[in-house]
Amino acid sequence: MLARIQELGVTLAPRLIEIRRHIHSHPELSGQEHQTAAYVAGVLAFCGIRATEGVGKTGVIGELKGSSNESRWLAIRTDMDALPIQERTNLEFASKNQGVMHACGHDIHTTVGLGTAMILSQLEEKLSGHVRFLFQPAEEIAQGARWMIADGVMKDVEAILGLHVFPTIPGGSVGIRHGALTAAADDLELIVMGESGHGARPHEAIDAIWIASQIITTLQQAISRTQNPLRPVVLTIGQISGGRASNVIADRVKLSGTVRSLHPETHEKLPAWIEQIVASVCQTYGAKYELNYKRGVPGVQNDPKLTQLLEAAALEALGRSQVQILPEPSLGAEDFSMYLEHAPGTMFRLGVGLKDQPNYPLHHPQFEVDESAIITGVVTLAYATWQYWKQN
Ligand code: NI
Questions:
Q1: In angstroms, what is the span from residue 207 Cα to ligand 1's centroid?
Q2: Which of 23, 192, 219, 242 has the most Cβ atoms closer than 10 angstroms to its Cβ?
């Protein structure tokens, strides 16, 4: 079966590169993926796969039925949105939409999803289970997965696979990560309220600026002294404002920041832990506060069994030298984690690094990829899906 999948991959390669270039030159922002969605649905329908548009607002699902009578689904998730960046590559298929660019490789992801659907739909021997392809919108604003799930895409899904391109891994290779892949990312907004007064008479006022600085210092020290160092937490206060004049004690300071963590248990406890520190510092010095802690997306925790299966499939399909085992997670965020609240899953990194050319990072206006990665991604996902339904 692997040989058949690889053969189909080679045959489909020119068509997939064409598809990728079309998507690349017509990028659309998060939540506005109307043309991309219509294009994706068109390609799916052409391959005889039932496609539904308007799922998760501007998302699309494609459903490929296997031979089973049971409603058991494996999902493959790819994302379709682009970024508000003006492309500065010299590619002949560069973005035609002013100020919008596929600088995070979601054009590759979408193409890999389509290619995997094409291959799996052409196998003579049917899969035993069903495969649902999720073409998700709005990943960059961490909303699309929520929208898709609200529209029922995880119904009867028992496992989910996903991928993201990675420029520091060479094209032709993949990166497999056991355990945590990305961090949970939350936001906080804090208002510290004191009492105004004369700058020369601090004892008659409650200095919100000084208390805010105590809160920041205490939080940073508390991370180092009370959080398990093997379960990292990063707190960054990125904005602070308050005060009216140099000789007036400020009665109000606003702070906002981002909180990243890797361990689910730590993530769970962070809001209460932060509030306790804020409350105790404020209480000590007589200030009041308003804390608005906004849960963002959880971290991606790759499922051990599925990651094992994916690794084995990649090793067999690509060879040992093309499969890297990633030693570290990233503190970036990815809303693939939202699906993992409904079914176990695993996400891998698809190498797109170019040989003998500078490799710009994701979200860079000169970001380019090695297009051969499309076939690497397609063969890996198609074979892993085949193996999943053979084993389960
Ligand atoms: Ni991305």
A1: 43
A2: 192
Distance (angstroms) between ligand 1 centre and the Cα of 105 equals 6
Do residues 63 and 153 make contact, with C-beta atoms less than 8 angstroms apart? Answer: no
CA dihedral (130, 136, 142, 147) in degrees, to 10, reads -80
pLDDT tens across 107-152, in order?
999 999 999 999 999 998 889 999 999 999 999 999 999 999 999 9
Would you state the structure tokens that stand for residue 138, as one six-digit string? 């709005």
Compute the distance from residue 81 Cα to the ligand 1 centre, in Å. 8
CB 202 within 8 A of CB 219: no
Ion ligand 1 nearby residues (CB, 5 A): 104
Q: How far apart are CA 287 and CA 272, in angstroms?
A: 19
DSSP state of 155: T
- Name the phi and psi angles at 11, rounded to 5: -65, -40
SS3 category, 346: strand
What's the N-to-C CA distance of the chain in angstroms?
17
Coil, strand or helix: which one is 194?
coil
Query: Would you say 194 and 249 are in contact if contact means Cβ atoms under 8 Å apart?
Result: yes
Query: How remote is the C-alpha of 263 from its chain's centroid?
Result: 17
Pairing of strands 248-249, 130-136: unpaired
User: What does the alpha-carbon distance between residue 129 and residue 73 come to, in Å, rounded to a whole number?
Assistant: 6
Ligand 1 mean position to 78 CA, how many Å?
10
List 325's β-bridge partners, or say none: 176
Type and span of the H or E element at 144: helix 144-150
- Taking only the tens place, the pLDDT of each residue in 310-334 is 999 999 999 999 999 999 999 889 9
What's the CA-to-centroid distance between 167 and ligand 1, angstroms? 12
The whole model's pTM is what?
0.90
Instruction: Quote the ligand 1 centre to 370 CA distance (angstroms).
Output: 16
How far is Cα 35 from Cα 95, in angstroms, rounded to an integer?
A: 14
Domains delineated in the chain: 2-182+299-391 (3.40.630.10), 184-297 (3.30.70.360)
Give which of 253, 263, 260 is closest to 274, Cα–Cα: 260
